[in-house]
Amino acid sequence: MAVKKIGKQTVKLQNPPSIIAYASVVGPKEGDGPLKEYFDQIEQDDYLGEKCWEKAECKMLQNAIILAMQKAKITTADVDYLLAGDLLNQIISSSFTARQLQIPYIGLYGACSTMSESLSLGALLIDGGFADYVIAATSSHFSSAERQYRFPLELGTQRPLTAQWTVTGAGATVLSSSGDGPYITYITTGRVLDLGIKDANNMGAAMAPAAVDTIKTHFSDTGFGPDDYDLIITGDLAKIGKDLTLELLKKDGIDISNIYTDCGIEIYDCERQDTHAGGSGCGCSAVVLNGYILTEIKKGTFKRVLFMATGALLSTTSSQQGESIPGIAHAVTIEMR
Amino acid sequence: MAVKKIGKQTVKLQNPPSIIAYASVVGPKEGDGPLKEYFDQIEQDDYLGEKCWEKAECKMLQNAIILAMQKAKITTADVDYLLAGDLLNQIISSSFTARQLQIPYIGLYGACSTMSESLSLGALLIDGGFADYVIAATSSHFSSAERQYRFPLELGTQRPLTAQWTVTGAGATVLSSSGDGPYITYITTGRVLDLGIKDANNMGAAMAPAAVDTIKTHFSDTGFGPDDYDLIITGDLAKIGKDLTLELLKKDGIDISNIYTDCGIEIYDCERQDTHAGGSGCGCSAVVLNGYILTEIKKGTFKRVLFMATGALLSTTSSQQGESIPGIAHAVTIEMR
User: Fold this and answer.
1) Chain A residue with the nearest C-alpha to that of B87
2) DSSP 8-state code for residue A80
3) What is the CATH number of domain B183-335?
4) How far A28 CA lies from chain B's nearest CA (Å)?
5) Which residues of B touch A314 (CB under 8 A)?
6) Nearest one of A78, A282, A318 to A174, comparing CA atoms
7) Partners of B17 in the beta sheet?
8) pLDDT of amino acid B332
9) Concatenated DSSP letters for A39-95?
């Protein structure tokens, strides 16, 4: 077996990369939520002065990356790889950002799992000796996502209570081969699971099985259990997906309820902000990680966190053709040592 | 600098992964072209018995991967990572294939550069000690691409002579930490370049600057020149992009004309098959690599090849919003030793 592989899907990093800087940029609604104090930039205009939401999303992603590089005191010339993806068709936010920054670029698509997908690959590239600095980044925008995936906003379509609210936000993490932590120590790469959910307004339920599969695999590969973590946080399962995840794990005798939450629940005050089941989108886990989680790890609140962004790998075409919604979840262990 | 990095954008692999098997599946038009003897499966029905082209594309990708695994005498349980992407929105061909195969999955988006993007990452994951077997794969389908990116086929829209024909095909490569070659020895990861081309019917011109940039960077990082290669082959620049690439390189005093061709030119007999500037799509470089190139390397025709798939990172939305077309090219050195 490959030297750094433990178990079936997990890598134990031998020279754990350090997160030396991170940044988050959010829209007005996220800036009015419970995590507002953790974000670096809160935009008051969700167009960011651009003519359309797609360009606004791209600008937000650029701003998050530039801010993270400034905090890390590095320039684009120092960065070996930019690993990024987003929800827009052909990931234009990421590709146009890469055009602007001129960093060697690896485009990813993992839907809302992109933050942990990019962190995973970035950590592997550094641990493998291929890079000194990697930037992992992603973004989403409520308005660009709604009009691409669902309905024109002008229609004012009523949303069911299972629906989630796509986060307007971008997050960027700078990984380095040296630094004082937090460190990335384990990576569990997910498989695609699909239990047959077809309702695109119930993504949490569609993604929960993948989250459960990755948590179970992570525990079995590493020998860890719930007691080894202060926090297990999924990407954007929101209320319904979170409850399902707890329930499915309990059936297998695993109880993580004391240390488990979801980025889609933390980001909004769902009652007051009328976001139904909670937040979603690549930007959801990206800004919660690059705002709340990493800050609290650095403060010492959490010693070891399992961060697990989750993605629903559907498209409008696959839904129209009667397909169900496949889900994926990648887990990344982040800790101070 | 990271231990395995040479120059700015290039990695020299210290334990070069071996390509232990490869497979290609193509549609009827490709099976009627000059490379037909190299393909494993030539489909006579471009629906592959499915109800729509998107499902046909997905099936083609699955078939190519399963065939490559059979040739490698491995099963899905042996494979550490599936690295795949395609042109369809949210890369559904790849994600639904990953759902079927249940291999840990990393979804990529690099447009038509996906074959070299996936090969690059796969080789890095093996050289880094994270995997024993990786599958790199991609696909495209003329009919699913046309209706997503351009016009409904039923319209019978006339195509300008600069237009390229999206290849119906899928290719898969099995990389291993041990084997008798061909080996992947160098990887040059591209930056995104954009010289302002806005015509989505002239992708070759839009991608040529990225190809030129990556070739120049590869030469300067490695110290290699045209004499060190028997073949330099770009992904899908086709006639116009190929001529531009040669011209731009000549301006910098680099002449690769004796050893240079493009997958988009090789795959069709453009005059007889009425494919205008030539082939394109993720599947173009995928089937030329996993048919013609690797077979001829194994035969000894080519000793060292620079394979460089090229991608146009536009979307219909970015074009409608007036954006030009960013391009990217990743280079992979493949050789017998």
Assistant:
1) A90
2) S
3) 3.40.47.40
4) 24
5) 90, 92
6) A78
7) none
8) 98
9) -SEE-SSTTTTSSSHHHHHHHHHHHHHHHHHHHHT--GGG-SEEEEEESSGGGHHHH
- Give ∠ CA A132-A135-A136 in degrees, rounded to 5: 130
Whether the CB-CB separation of A7 and A221 falls below 8 Å is answered with yes
Say if domain A14-176 classifies as CATH 3.40.718.10. no
* CB-CB neighbours of A243 under 10 Å: 15
**pLDDT (tens digit per residue) in A86-124:** 999 999 999 999 999 999 999 999 999 999 999 999 999
| Rounded Cα distance, A105 and A137, in Å | 11
| CA–CA min distance A326, chain B (Å) | 7
- Encode pLDDT of B88-99 as tens digits: 999 999 999 999
Instruction: Determine which of B106, B120, B187, B282 to mutate to test the interface with A (most A C-beta atoms within 10 Å).
Output: B106
Q: How confident is the model at residue B105 (pLDDT cuts 50, 70, 90)?
A: very high
Residues of chain B in contact with residue A121, where contact means CB-CB under 8 angstroms, are 106, 121
Mean pLDDT, rounded, for B240-249: 97
> What CATH superfamily is the domain B5-176?
Stage V sporulation protein AD (3.40.47.40)
**Nearest by CB to A109, which of B1, B55, B109?**
B109
The whole-angstrom distance between A115's CA and the closest CA on chain B is 12
Cα–Cα distance for residue pair A97/B110, rounded to 1 Å: 14
User: Are the beta carbons of A124 and B111 separated by less than 8 Å?
Assistant: no
Asked, as a colleague might, if the bond just before B17 is cis with ω within 30 of 0, I would say: no
The whole-number mean pLDDT for each consecutive block of 10 residues of chain A, a chain of 337 residues, reads 88 97 98 98 97 97 98 98 98 98 98 98 98 98 94 89 95 97 98 94 93 98 98 96 97 97 96 94 98 98 98 96 96 95
Decide if A214 contacts A248 (C-beta within 8 A): no
Strands A183-188 and B327-335: unpaired
Which amino acid, one-letter code, is at B195? L
Strand A41-42 versus strand A18-26 pairing type: parallel
Q: A105 to chain B: which residues are within 8 Å by CB?
A: 189-192, 328
For A103, the closest chain B residue by CA position comes to: B191
Q: Which of A51, A59, A117, A130 to mutate to test the interface with B (most CBs of B within 10 A)?
A: A130
**Of B4, B51, B132, which is closest to A2 when you measure between CB atoms?**
B132
Predicted confidence band of residue B119 (pLDDT cuts 50, 70, 90)? very high
Is residue B184 within 8 A of residue B332, CB to CB? The reply is yes
Alpha-carbon distance A162 to B306, whole Å?
50
Distances (CA, A) of A248 to A28, A210, A244, A251, A324: 35, 11, 6, 5, 20
Question: How near does any CA of chain A get to the CA of B129, in Å?
Answer: 5
The boundaries of every CATH 3.40.47.40 domain in chain B are 5-176, 183-335
pLDDT at B201: 87
Q: Which residue shows structure tokens 């040529």?
A: B208
Question: Which two structure tokens, joined as six digits, stand for A305?
Answer: 């966190």
Range(s) within chain A of domains with CATH label 3.40.47.40: 14-176, 183-335
How high does pLDDT run on average in chain B?
A: 96
Min Cα distance B315 → chain A (Å) is: 6
